[in-house]
Design brief:
CATH architecture: 3-Layer(aba) Sandwich
Helix content: 25-40%
CATH class: Alpha Beta
Shape: globular
Order of helices and strands: EHEHHEEHEEHEE
Distance between the termini: 23 Å
Number of domains: 1
Bound molecules: nicotinamide-adenine-dinucleotide
CATH superfamily: NAD(P)-binding Rossmann-like Domain
Number of helices: 5
Largest sheet: 4 strands, parallel
CATH topology: Rossmann fold
Structural class: alpha/beta
Strand order of the largest sheet: 3-2-1-4
């Protein structure tokens, strides 16, 4: 489709990342990247073990490519990281997945800053991004403004 302008990469295809990737793929090209090869293989057979998405919904998502290849995300313009942020027994965040995912993205990032804002919530860092996503319920609609350099792109998404 000629109006597909954005190439979005969603890093981490869990409870949050997979539905997000599916929604974005309704309008733009999406690469869903996960380092869990079993998860990738299952999703490519339209099986979501988290039961967030049905086989039919996965089959319909023809502009979503699911991969564990870092090479495949290189051509993306926007990177959204949705990897786990667990805590240890002392309630301190375990940042290893986030650091590893940041290294993956950092290795392919091109010149240009990206700021994501969803409805009235300004997204300044990964934690505020996660917090904002948690305010939405399945079926809610949101307008997402993405600022890259000086250009604003508006996305309308349904959760
Ligand atoms: N699940 C929820 O209801 C919920 C709600 C609000 C916010 N969040 C936040 O969203 C984030 C994601 O949570 P989730 O529940 O989707 O996690 P999840 O455990 O369901 O999925 C995370 C996925 O990321 C993959 N992954 C881990 N490290 C990776 C890496 N370095 N590169 C690529 N893929 C990697 C895992 O294989 C897994 O498939 C967390 O920060 C969580 O706190 C979750």
């Amino acid at each position: 489709m000629t109006d597909r302008k954005l190439n979005i990469a969603v890093i981490g295809l869990g409870y949050v990342g997979l539905p997000l990737a599916i929604e974005f793929s309704k309008k733009d090209n999406v690469i869903g990247y996960d380092l869990n090869k079993l998860r990738v293989s299952e999703l490519n057979k339209q099986y979501d073990r988290t039961n967030e998405l049905s086989k039919e919904e996965l089959l319909e998502a023809k502009y979503l490519k699911v991969t564990s290849s870092e090479e495949a995300i290189k051509s993306s313009n926007i990177y959204i990281v949705t990897v786990p942020t667990p805590v240890d027994k002392n309630n301190r965040p375990i940042l290893t997945p986030l650091i590893k995912a940041s290294e993956t993205v950092g290795a392919v990032l091109k010149k240009g800053d990206i700021v994501i804002k969803i409805n009235d919530y300004s997204i300044d860092d990964m934690m505020s991004y996660m917090e904002t996503l948690s305010k939405f319920n399945k079926g809610d609609k949101a307008e997402v403004s993405v600022l890259r350099d000086t250009k604003i792109v508006i996305l309308n998404i349904e959760f």
